[in-house]
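Notes from the 1:1 (GR / supervisor)

We went over the backlog. Supervisor wanted to see one worked example end to end before approving the batch request, so GR pasted a single chain during the call. The sequence is below; no edits were made to it. Supervisor asked that the structure be written out right there so they could see what the output format looks like.
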Amino acid sequence: MAPRTQPPSIRGRFRITSAELWDRKALDLVEPAFIRFGDDQDGEFRMVAVQGDLDCRHGTRDGQPAVEFTWEGMDELDKAHGRGWAV
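Structure output shown during the call:
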Protein backbone atom coordinates (compact mmCIF):
# COMPACT_ATOMS: atom_id res chain seq x y z
CA MET A 1 0.00 0.00 0.00
CA ALA A 2 1.37 3.43 -0.93
CA PRO A 3 1.95 5.86 1.96
CA ARG A 4 -0.77 8.46 2.52
CA THR A 5 0.57 11.99 2.40
CA GLN A 6 -0.82 15.43 3.14
CA PRO A 7 -0.97 18.06 0.39
CA PRO A 8 2.03 20.44 0.64
CA SER A 9 -0.14 23.34 1.88
CA ILE A 10 -1.37 21.25 4.82
CA ARG A 11 1.95 19.71 5.88
CA GLY A 12 4.01 21.50 8.52
CA ARG A 13 3.94 23.10 11.94
CA PHE A 14 1.55 26.00 12.50
CA ARG A 15 1.28 28.41 15.43
CA ILE A 16 -2.14 28.46 17.13
CA THR A 17 -2.91 32.12 17.81
CA SER A 18 -6.62 32.05 18.69
CA ALA A 19 -9.25 29.66 19.95
CA GLU A 20 -12.90 29.93 20.81
CA LEU A 21 -12.47 28.95 24.47
CA TRP A 22 -9.09 30.44 25.45
CA ASP A 23 -7.28 33.77 25.10
CA ARG A 24 -3.71 33.97 23.76
CA LYS A 25 -2.09 33.90 27.20
CA ALA A 26 -3.98 30.72 28.15
CA LEU A 27 -3.11 29.04 24.82
CA ASP A 28 0.59 29.45 25.58
CA LEU A 29 0.32 28.34 29.23
CA VAL A 30 2.86 25.48 29.02
CA GLU A 31 4.62 26.33 25.74
CA PRO A 32 3.79 28.27 22.57
CA ALA A 33 0.63 26.62 21.18
CA PHE A 34 1.05 24.74 17.89
CA ILE A 35 -0.39 22.08 15.61
CA ARG A 36 1.73 19.97 13.27
CA PHE A 37 0.49 17.96 10.29
CA GLY A 38 3.02 15.29 9.26
CA ASP A 39 3.78 13.45 6.04
CA ASP A 40 1.87 10.23 6.76
CA GLN A 41 -1.46 11.62 7.98
CA ASP A 42 -0.06 11.91 11.48
CA GLY A 43 0.55 14.97 13.59
CA GLU A 44 0.43 16.46 17.04
CA PHE A 45 -0.73 19.56 18.88
CA ARG A 46 -0.19 21.33 22.17
CA MET A 47 -2.13 24.21 23.70
CA VAL A 48 -2.98 25.23 27.27
CA ALA A 49 -2.33 21.98 29.22
CA VAL A 50 -3.73 19.79 26.41
CA GLN A 51 -1.57 17.68 24.11
CA GLY A 52 -2.51 15.06 21.59
CA ASP A 53 -1.55 12.93 18.62
CA LEU A 54 -3.50 13.38 15.38
CA ASP A 55 -4.90 10.97 12.80
CA CYS A 56 -5.57 13.14 9.75
CA ARG A 57 -7.56 12.95 6.52
CA HIS A 58 -7.08 15.62 3.88
CA GLY A 59 -9.52 17.04 1.40
CA THR A 60 -11.13 20.37 0.62
CA ARG A 61 -13.57 22.64 2.40
CA ASP A 62 -15.24 25.47 0.48
CA GLY A 63 -12.74 24.86 -2.33
CA GLN A 64 -9.67 25.27 -0.06
CA PRO A 65 -7.23 22.57 1.04
CA ALA A 66 -8.38 21.26 4.41
CA VAL A 67 -7.62 18.57 6.95
CA GLU A 68 -10.00 16.78 9.30
CA PHE A 69 -8.57 14.90 12.25
CA THR A 70 -9.28 12.89 15.34
CA TRP A 71 -6.95 13.10 18.31
CA GLU A 72 -6.05 11.25 21.48
CA GLY A 73 -3.95 12.63 24.28
CA MET A 74 -4.00 14.25 27.69
CA ASP A 75 -5.70 17.26 29.24
CA GLU A 76 -3.52 17.93 32.27
CA LEU A 77 -3.27 14.36 33.62
CA ASP A 78 -6.60 13.07 32.27
CA LYS A 79 -6.97 11.06 29.07
CA ALA A 80 -8.76 13.07 26.39
CA HIS A 81 -9.80 12.77 22.75
CA GLY A 82 -11.71 14.72 20.15
CA ARG A 83 -12.12 15.81 16.56
CA GLY A 84 -11.24 18.92 14.62
CA TRP A 85 -10.53 20.44 11.25
CA ALA A 86 -8.40 23.18 9.72
CA VAL A 87 -8.14 25.06 6.42
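Supervisor's comment: DSSP finds one helix and six strands in the chain.
Batch request approved.
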